[in-house]
Structures are given as structure tokens and as C-alpha cells.
Amino acid sequence: MHPQTPYEITTARPLPTAPVAQAPGWERPAMLPEELPPGVQVVTLPGGIRTLAYTQPSHTAPTPPAAAPPAQPIPAWAKTTALLAPTVGLGIGAASVGLSYAAPGLIAMSHALWSAAALIVAAVVAVPVLLRSGRRTTAPTQITQNITATGLFGRANGTINHR
């Protein structure tokens, strides 16, 4: 018996065929256990009378196992991703091994490129210096300008003399 209920819950059984003492004027029709609606049980009250009653579900009663959802097919994108993952991983691994073998050559190549860049810079600086030193020196040309104007807004006239 549950500690909070004053009655005892029994399982549904066929009602006895012997007549049970009833109050006069009340006739109880026999009900088969299969006819009981869900949630209704045969309950024995403290006075010994058995009756039908709605009861709370028992917390200790095992719940029926949930039906497993139907299996769904695996989507195509998931299959493609699953097949690509190891391929990409192996490609990255192979690239890292290749770089580790190529590292000494890459370092030597970078030194050679820096040397070539230094040679180009030296050529850019040295060629103009050599060309300038090879010219003959002459007197620089002098240009003289004479400009005259009359008035604030007068027209200006000028002459240029090369010597």
C-alpha cells in the first residue's frame, strides 16, 4: 500500500461469481478486466469493499521501453566527408614529410635569392656612379632673364639670354 493513500491497489482480476453483499437497490453489473478503460483499476477500500477507481500512475511501475526510431539512410554529404577526411589528412602528412626533406634546399635557395637581390641593388647604384665619373666636365650654362612690367595689372615683358 502506498504511504499517502488509504487504499490498496490490486491487479484487475475477474470478479468472483459468488454474490457480494451490496446495499439494497444497487446492483453491480459484472465487468470483464478487458473492458476496463485505461487508468481504471479495481481498488479495495479499507472497509473491504472492492470498487473501480481512477488511480495515479505508480512511480515504481516500469515504463514501457521507447520504440527505437526507424533507421534513416546516411546522407551523401556525410559519406563524402567521411571519405575525404583521411585523404586530406594523408595529403597534409605527405606534404609535411616532403617539406622536411626539402628544407635544406629551400634554405640554400633563399640565401641564393638574397645574394642575387644584393647584386641587383649594387648594380643599380654602381652604374650611374660609373657613368657620371666618365663624363667630361664643362662649364655650366648660364641663363639670364630680364622681366619688366608697368603698373599693378600691366603686361610683363621679358628676355632670356643664354651664355
Textual characterization of the structure:
36% of the residues lie in helices and 16% in strands. By secondary structure, it is an alpha+beta fold. A hairpin with a 6-residue loop joins β4 and β5. The N and C termini lie far apart (133 Å). The model has no long low-confidence stretch (mean pLDDT 80).
Strand order of the largest sheet: 1-2-3
Oligomer: single chain
Helices and strands, in order, run as EEEHEE
Number of helices: 1
| Percent range for β-strand residues | 15-25%
In short:
This protein is an alpha+beta fold. It contains one helix and five strands, in the order βββαββ.
Identify the notable features of this structure and list them briefly.
163 residues, 36% helix, alpha+beta, two-stranded antiparallel sheet, 5 strands, 3-stranded antiparallel beta sheet
